[in-house]
User: Which sequence fits this backbone?
């Protein structure tokens, strides 16, 4: 039955290809916007989760005020801040992150990259706590000086000749021994290098700067409570609240969501309008369709179609129009999301990790079908109620 | 004598057009026996098509009774009437009334979509019916690619797909030249004589070659010569 119904409709569609496509334009735009919006939102959450699985879900980050985005070498604190918060209950240890943008030289080539300082007194603890693994080699030894760890892509792809453990590279005219190469992670670590913090301080001529403090929390302590204690302490150190931000994983998610939220409202509004316009479009097109096919409706009824048959036939048609709009909309949504993803990656950011969610695809398609069906309700009802004799006389 | 398959008992049909009432049927009485070939004649506007609509359950009377197979259909629900149209009656119209987007074959089995499950059996039957009306070489053509006579033959094949007892034809040759018309009449004659179908044909033309049993003349919404 359904197959034959679709045959009945399909033949009609062929004759009205362009019009059907135009009709679905609103649905296409609306569905693709919704799809992109949700995918980007999820992508950001993915990225945050990913980042925190790297820095550890039991960590608090202290970054300078006014910073909206990934930490950079541009802003930071004085390292003396560390001693002022170290004694807060629940703090396990505090890792000072220093970022220095510089070049790495290898085999006559130079590559610009971010070099991170690592406190060798922590031995390999900070790496293990953040689940950072090596593909080859070893981590730093305490007080080691001329050693360097390289990100996977930096070592393998950035130079025309692959860098291996035990090779030597040059940073700011100093020779460093490559002691290890990180596993590929798909995050910014892949493009970075780590050298001992004290060495980086000399090289960068930043004896006191810390870009980010990562505070590791002891097991059994409430991370939000410790963060609040840190905030209280920092308020005493700084004159104003604007100079620092203390983030727990949850807060970072909330912060990004609020940025996203403002954007979402606009996009949701556009999506809602286009879907509304799309629904009106489908309804209008279905009314035209019913009118144009009045005589055919009369014929179908004459040869035995019930009102309910005609109703379902036209509802099916409008739901298929919705589905077509949904399929095109989701396809466009996938393409644009992946495009955004590759642009963000090529710009070197990792604050978004796009994944195409099959549930979202199905959800969007169902939504499009529902919109199509609802838009077709009134025209289909009118079609089903046509009087046979009148319909047959219609020219 | 066999029993009446169609009985129209004092049927009135009044169309309300703005201020004016048009009485299309004014106490019509007709009885048609199973297997009869009946011709309904009368001047234009006399109520022939309205009668056709009443017998075919395409419209309901304002007053009076219509019995099909002894069952009063004037009070049946919409879906029951649709069932009767689909199963008991085959329709042939002056303007063919085919579905323009469907092929000849699809047009023929289209009624079965609403009544039985269209399956390979039905499609085979549709092909046989097209063969019977001499159109086996045209099954994939659209109506627009067929001549008037061919279209009417597709319509005849369609009217037979659900194996109805009664075939109603409203001026089936009205849009055809006389030679093609003769051909259509011949097919109807065969359906009556060989397949024992009851046939009710409305026409205002001179009676060509139809081997009918009876002519019912209608004038001003009533039977004239009974
Ligand atoms: N749907 C309708 N609305 C109003 N008047 C109608 C309608 N159908 C038929 N009539 C009128 O009823 C009368 C009988 O029409 P009809 O049965 O079509 O006649 P015939 O088929 O014999 O030419 C005519 O006067 C016609 O104008
Ligand atoms: Mg007429």
Assistant:
């Amino acid at each position: 039955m359904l197959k034959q119904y679709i045959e009945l409709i399909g033949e009609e569609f062929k004759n009205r290809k362009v019009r059907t496509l135009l009709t679905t334009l609103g649905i296409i735009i609306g569905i693709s916007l919704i799809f992109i919006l949700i995918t980007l939102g999820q992508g950001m959450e993915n990225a945050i989760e990913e980042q925190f699985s790297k820095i550890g879900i039991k960590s608090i980050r202290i970054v300078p005020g006014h910073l909206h985005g990934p930490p950079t070498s541009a802003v930071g604190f004085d390292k003396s801040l560390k001693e002022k918060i170290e004694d807060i209950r629940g703090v396990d240890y505090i890792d000072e992150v220093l970022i220095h943008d510089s070049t790495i030289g290898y085999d006559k080539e130079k590559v610009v990259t971010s070099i991170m300082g690592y406190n060798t007194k922590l031995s390999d603890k900070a790496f293990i706590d953040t689940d950072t693994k090596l593909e080859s080699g070893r981590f730093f030894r305490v007080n080691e000086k001329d050693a360097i760890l390289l990100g996977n892509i930096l070592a393998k792809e950035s130079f025309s000749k692959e860098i291996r453990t035990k090779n030597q590279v040059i940073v700011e005219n100093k020779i460093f021994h490559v002691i290890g190469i990180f596993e590929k992670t798909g995050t910014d670590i892949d493009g970075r290098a780590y050298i001992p913090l004290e060495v980086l301080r000399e090289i960068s001529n930043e004896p006191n700067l810390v870009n980010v403090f990562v505070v590791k929390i002891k097991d059994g302590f409430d991370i939000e409570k410790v963060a609040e204690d840190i905030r209280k302490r920092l308020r005493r150190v700084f004159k104003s609240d604007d100079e620092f931000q203390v983030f727990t994983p949850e807060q970072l998610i909330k912060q990004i969501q609020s940025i996203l939220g403002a954007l979402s409202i606009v996009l949701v509004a556009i999506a809602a309008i286009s879907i509304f316009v799309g629904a009106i479009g489908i309804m209008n097109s279905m009314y035209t369709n019913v009118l144009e096919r009045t005589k055919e409706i009369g014929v179908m009824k004459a040869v035995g179609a019930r009102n309910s048959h005609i109703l379902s036939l036209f509802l099916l048609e409008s739901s298929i129009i919705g589905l077509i709009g949904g399929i095109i909309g989701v396809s466009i949504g996938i393409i644009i999301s992946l495009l955004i993803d590759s642009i963000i990656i090529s710009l070197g950011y990792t604050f978004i990790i796009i994944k195409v969610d099959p549930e979202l695809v199905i959800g969007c398609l169902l939504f499009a079908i529902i919109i199509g069906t609802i838009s077709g309700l009134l025209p289909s009802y009118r079609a089903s109620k046509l009087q046979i004799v009148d319909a047959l006389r219609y020219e | 004598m066999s029993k009446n398959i169609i009985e129209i008992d004092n049927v009135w049909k009044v169309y309300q057009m703005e201020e004016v009432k048009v009485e299309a049927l004014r106490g019509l009485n007709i009885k048609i026996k199973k297997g009869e070939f009946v011709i309904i004649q009368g001047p234009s506007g006399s109520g022939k098509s309205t009668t056709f609509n009443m017998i075919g359950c395409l419209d309901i009377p304002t007053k009076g009774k219509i019995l099909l197979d002894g069952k009063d259909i004037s009070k049946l629900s919409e879906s029951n009437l649709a069932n009767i149209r689909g199963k008991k009656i085959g329709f042939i119209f002056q303007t063919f009334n085919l579905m323009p987007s469907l092929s000849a074959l699809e047009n023929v089995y289209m009624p079965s979509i609403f009544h039985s499950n269209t399956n390979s059996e039905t499609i085979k039957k549709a092909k046989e019916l097209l063969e019977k009306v001499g159109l086996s070489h045209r099954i994939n053509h659209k109506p627009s690619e067929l001549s008037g006579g061919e279209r009417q033959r597709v319509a005849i094949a369609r009217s037979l797909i659900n194996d109805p007892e009664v075939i109603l034809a409203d001026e089936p040759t009205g849009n055809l030249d006389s030679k093609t018309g003769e051909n259509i009449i011949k097919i109807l004659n065969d359906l009556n004589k060989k397949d024992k179908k009851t046939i009710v044909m409305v026409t205002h033309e001179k009676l060509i070659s139809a081997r009918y049993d009876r002519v019912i003349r209608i004038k001003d919404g009533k039977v004239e010569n009974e």
About this structure: Chain A has two domains: 2-52+254-393, 59-218.
